[in-house]
Write a structure and sequence with these properties.
This protein is of the alpha/beta class. The protein has 21 helices and 19 strands.
């Protein structure tokens, strides 16, 4: 009875008074609705951000479809409410609810959070509190849902250990189904006990139950050792990855929002992993090995989704889509098939040296947009340090060809604050942008686009776990500001627009990325001070974060700015993501020496994945290539 009253309040009193009511109703095309009579497991897939961000996330769409394919599992979606909705929910005593049924998620068996970005952590706490679920896992009862974390941030879950019952390390498709199967077994035994379930879950490879481990610290604050305190706990906790991507689950329909989302199109994954070895890139390390889908698999899947969704754009997703071995064949086939239907094809992730302007022309036959490229650094020295593997000639050659064929809008992405960076490297960004403008003016007036706009964007480098730069200390915030100011002053062309990222957000991102369990108290305090949705400029409050650290007596510089020695035990050393520490050390040393490493489709650099999983053989390696 109480549920029906709450639902009535939501639909009749709250939704008419908020800005985007359609995002809370769960009645979109292809949303799943099930009768609850035969449901054994209720799973709330929680995205700790707003609807328009969460509904663009491919991982959510995969797990939502995969779980709902199970007859006795009902997976519903839940997102962080916008400020107006949250205020009304609190005023009316309405707890956080799932979209499809509008039932409170506190009544579910599982709440699974995807952790894509460190600055979403306080939003997780806000959602738990709004749901009426105790923040601390140690204080929850048998009737409370099991709180699961997954996603890339779980390669260092330590700052969140106080709040989660378990984490999925690595790719979640197979592990999640195994967790559900285990839960069924425990429930059917007739004497279900949450602690017993969690201990059993710890035996599943890829599952980390933090309550079964303890961390001991040195007097100087560094980690002494990480120990298992239960016989079910293993060390290290090994990541899981899907071996056969070709046959793995991928949805044949997608929930279609009625409102605009960040990425409003069909997302189709063409391969997973990346072998480029960019030393700043966490995703390129933790999603190894590289696994391709066949052209037939991709084209068949896209055909099904075009029919079931009606979307007018298909985005070919991977960490570096231009590296797909049959990319030109795939694009040619897709354009030929869908051009008459006005369905366009997009490649959101391209390297400068894998870009064919002819290929870009092919995919933009339906609708023409700008070109986005990521040199990442302004000088060749710096690009060698980060192992980017592209040259200035690659960039100028690509943009010149684009200008000759009528493009006029170029976006260039860079990072500042990279290891060993000098002022010359920063100024090289402005110099490179000016050379791109020069390439535009070098084209005959009658053939080039009537206008030219080069957009330069810089982000602040954040050292991340399981990268060769995980030992490197981030530069101080004031140094980022100085570098940004230097760059602003050195860009003189009116054809170049400069955008930059706030350094204080990146500082706290680095703190959380490289943190340990002691940051749980800081997160709780920051949330209590009002921090949430910290990835949004309208919400982020650096003063509140500073106060939280002061109240807890913890120095954030210890985590973000300190360069760590190779002999130091890192807070995430008990997690095994497949790349060996020896490989990461070698890559750090090669970075300092300004030496590059081979692309793994062309040779093996010995990253450790073949030792991690002896059943796996990288498809790039022939019998003649040595390890």
């Amino acid at each position: 009875m109480k549920k029906s009253i709450e639902k009535q309040i939501i639909t009749e009193s709250l939704l008419p008074r908020v800005l985007n009511p359609i995002t809370y109703q769960g009645n979109e095309v292809n949303a799943v609705h099930k009768a609850l009579d035969n449901i054994a497991i209720r799973f709330a897939f929680a995205f700790p951000d707003l609807y328009e961000v969460g509904m663009s996330h491919l991982g959510m769409r995969i797990l939502y479809g995969m779980l709902n394919r199970e007859e006795d599992i009902y997976c519903e979606r839940v997102f962080a409410p916008q400020g107006d909705m949250e205020t009304l929910m609190r005023e009316n005593g309405i707890s956080l609810f799932a979209l499809e049924t509008m039932d409170p998620i506190k009544a579910f068996d599982f709440v699974g959070f995807t952790l894509q970005y460190e600055m979403c952590y306080t939003t997780v706490l806000n959602m738990l509190e709004l749901a009426g679920i105790n923040l601390l896992s140690s204080q929850r009862g048998e009737d409370d849902p099991i709180i699961i974390g997954g996603g890339p941030c779980c390669c260092n879950p330590e700052p969140l250990c106080d709040f989660f019952d378990l984490f999925v390390i690595g790719e979640g498709e197979e592990v999640t189904l195994e967790l559900m199967s285990l839960y069924r077994k425990h429930k059917q035994s007739g004497n279900y006990n949450k602690k017993a379930y969690l201990k059993s879950a710890a035996n599943i490879e890829g599952v980390y139950v933090p309550s079964l481990y303890d961390v001991v610290y040195h007097d100087d604050g560094t980690v002494n050792h990480i120990q298992a305190i239960d016989e079910n706990a293993t060390l290290p906790i090994r990541k899981r990855f899907v071996h056969n991507l070709e046959d793995s689950y991928f949805p044949d329909d997608l929930v279609i929002p009625y409102s605009q989302t960040v990425h409003d199109r069909i997302p189709f994954e063409i391969f997973r992993g990346c072998g480029r070895g960019c030393r700043f890139c966490q995703a390129g390390m933790i999603y190894r090995p590289t696994r391709d889908k066949s052209v037939n698999c991709i084209e068949s899947g896209i055909e099904t989704l075009v029919k079931s969704t009606g979307y007018e754009e298909v985005s070919l997703l991977s960490l570096s889509s231009g590296d797909y071995p049959e990319i030109e064949t795939l694009i040619h086939d897709l354009v030929k098939t869908y051009e008459s239907q006005r369905v366009s094809v997009a490649l959101p992730s391209l390297r400068i040296d894998s870009v064919s302007v002819d290929m870009l022309e092919e995919i933009q036959k339906v609708r023409k947009t700008g070109i986005t490229l990521a040199p990442e650094a302004g000088t060749q020295r710096m690009r060698d340090v980060i192992n980017k593997g592209v040259t200035e000639d690659d960039l100028i050659s690509t943009v010149t060809e684009a200008f000759t064929k009528g493009w006029g809008h170029i976006k260039l992405y860079f990072m500042i604050g990279l290891p060993t960076e000098t002022d010359e490297d920063v100024l090289g960004i402005a110099d490179l942008a000016e050379k791109v403008v020069d390439a535009y003016f070098a084209q005959p007036k009658e053939t080039r686009n009537k206008s030219c706009q080069v957009v330069v964007s810089t982000s602040c480098f954040v050292p991340k776990p399981f990268t060769p730069f995980q030992w490197f200390g981030q530069v101080p915030m004031e140094d980022f500001v100085q570098k940004q100011d230097m760059l602003k002053k050195s860009i003189t062309s009116r054809k170049v627009k400069y955008n930059w990222h706030a350094s204080d957000v990146s500082f706290y991102e680095a703190v959380l990325a490289r943190g340990d369990r002691r940051l749980g108290a800081v997160l709780k305090t920051a949330f209590e001070l009002g921090c949430k949705l910290d990835g949004w400029n309208d919400y982020f409050d650096a003063d509140k974060w500073r106060q939280a650290f002061e109240k807890c007596g913890i120095d954030p510089d210890f985590y973000a700015l300190r360069t760590r020695g190779f002999d130091e035990i890192l807070p995430w050393d008990h997690i095994d993501m497949g790349v060996s520490k020896a490989f990461l050390k070698r890559e750090w040393q090669k970075a300092i020496a300004e030496n590059t490493t081979v692309f793994c489709r062309e040779g093996c650099a010995g990253c450790g994945i073949l030792s991690f999983d002896k059943q796996w053989k990288c498809h790039e390696l022939s019998e003649n290539k040595s390890l």
